[in-house]
Amino acid sequence: MTYLAPRQGLFAIIILISFFIHTTLLLISTNQQLDELKTQTGERMLVQLIDEVKLPLLSKDKVSLSVLTGRYTSENTVASLTVKDIDNQVLIQTGQAQLLEGKTLSRKVIMGDSVIGRVDMTLRDTGNGEIIASQWIFILGSFITHLLIWLLYGYVARPTREQLAALSRDVQDYLINQNQNSGRVGDEHSVSEPSQPKDGLSIHKALGAYIKSHQDEDSSQADSDLINEGQHTVQSTSDNPANAHQDILKKIDDNAIGNGGANADELSESEGALTTTGAKLQSLTANRPIEVATVKIRFYDPNLLLTALAFEKSEPYFALCNQLLQRTIDELLKQPILFGIKLHNKPVFDENGATVEFLATTSHSKAGLAAIMLAKAYVMLNEVTYIKHRELQRFALQVIAGVSDQATSEKMEQLLVNNASEDDILALLPVEGIKQLRGYIQLNSLKNPTTVYERDCAIVEGVSDSMMQRLIEVRDAVLLSALN
Predict the structure, then answer these.
(1) pLDDT digits (tens, 9 = 90+) for 211-233
(2) Average pLDDT in the chain
(3) Is residue 436 helix, strand or coil?
(4) CB 474: neighbour CB atoms within 10 A?
(5) Is 7 left (phi over 0), alpha (psi -120 to 50) or beta?
(6) Rounded CA gap, 307 and 329, in Å?
(7) CB of 229 within 8 A of CB of 251?
(8) May I ask the CATH architecture of the domain 8-129?
(9) Which is nearest to 197 in space by CA: 223, 236, 224?
(10) Where are the domains of the chain?
(11) Tell me, what's the pLDDT at 235?
(12) How far apart are CA 321 and CA 335, in angstroms?
């Protein structure tokens, strides 16, 4: 017979309460982290947007303002954007401000020493359903862990063989004393049959009282089994109390032996399952040094406009892209943070874009960071030239960029085709390259990955304030050199 652990039902309630507390704390902490992250991201986007809308806001060009703000409202974190002029009149409003609520960030647009307008950005609140959907693996793992704890408690907290043997000895001594005091119960049964149920019931009550006085209330199920067995034995062998005592002891000892064997087998199976689960959770992330980082800049051309462009128009456009790219590289390599980085190839733009390789000449050089900075700087620079070309009704395309090392350079081509849209920057770097970005670049995993490389790939979501200032300085330096 298998005995239950003391208060196993109450322990199950405690385990459920613990699971709900863990889940609640997860929702609160994740929501707080997401709010802080969205605020930081919104501040950076707002600074970048203000820098881009100065000229359109000064001329009250609503078309250009709509194009610029539309890119930001496409982000999941931004609910709406409102651009107002100096008289606080709304020039453009994009997004879903009427449907979504959230924190609003507001900043003045300053050109020179004068205020020319204001930009308001409303960030979308994150619901608990979204958090649960994104953290379902952790919640399921927490539930399974609590369930395993409850099952393990049920196995290890049951009475052991030694405890049951000690109980059997106590019961034997108690029954012998009761029989001596009752004046040979068997003889009384043979004399008077009507008293048989009464005597059997009195022994049963005495046995039950003894067990209740020495056992905790929590082992009520085990006590009931012992009482039922004692009652059956007394009633069937009321003429021989010694045999009844021996039968009870034998049953308790047999239960102890069977319980010990079951515990050993079940615990062995549990340990094997935990070992198998640990083996499946081994990390597959590559950890290799990164000496050469590759930046692939590709035109975002879903309508295949470049293939229909005449040669006499495409060549000047490629020449302009080459000039801007080379000046961006020159300005970028002047940054002290990229000490020991040099250009490893001579990039040239054509209909397939351009590929840039950075070489780390020292063990402390950050080739991965240099590649990400070039990709972000060129995307920012191309956005300015793209808007200007569109205003002048000239041909221009937006770009996408991919950063990787030499080992994953070919895989990045397919990732850009399948997972990138305008102005996106993808990163497929080993652990050493990701460490170089810490504190400067914010990365997020791709949504719904279907391959190993899509799982390891990340998209650049934002940069730190200090890094954004560096990139703006590089972009402005390139534009000023182009004007000169």
Answers:
(1) 444 444 444 444 444 445 444 44
(2) 77
(3) helix
(4) 26
(5) left
(6) 28
(7) yes
(8) 2-Layer Sandwich (3.30)
(9) 236
(10) 8-129, 162-280, 292-483
(11) 45
(12) 22
CB contact set of 103 (below 8 Å; sequence gap of 6+): 35, 38, 39, 42, 122, 123, 125
pLDDT reading at 276 higher than 60:
no
- Between the alpha carbon of residue 301 and those of residues 177, 327, 386, the distances in Å are 98, 24, 13
- List of residues 6+ apart from 134 with CB closer than 8 A: none
CA–CA dist 455, 446 (Å, integer): 7
Query: Which residue, chain included where needed, has tokens 């083996």?
Result: 279
- Architecture per CATH, 292-483: 2-Layer Sandwich (3.30)
In the chain, % of residues over pLDDT 70:
75
pLDDT at 101: 66
Q: Which two tokens stand for residue 52?
A: 């881009």
Query: What's the rounded Cα separation, in Å, for the pair 121 and 93?
Result: 10
Closest C-alpha among 102, 84, 113 to residue 34: 102
Considering only CA atoms, which of 331, 285, 301 is closest in space to residue 398? Answer: 301
Would you call 14 exposed, middle or buried from its count of C-beta atoms within 10 A (0-12, 13-18, 19+)?
Answer: middle
Tokens of 459: 């998209």
Non-local (6+) Cβ contacts of 396 within 8 A are: 317, 385, 386, 389, 390
- Cα gap 459→428, rounded to integer Å: 9
Report the predicted TM-score, pTM, of the whole model to 2 decimal places.
0.44
Phi and psi at residue 49, to the nearest 5° = -65, -40
pLDDT on residue 299: 94
Residue 370, both tokens: 């240099």
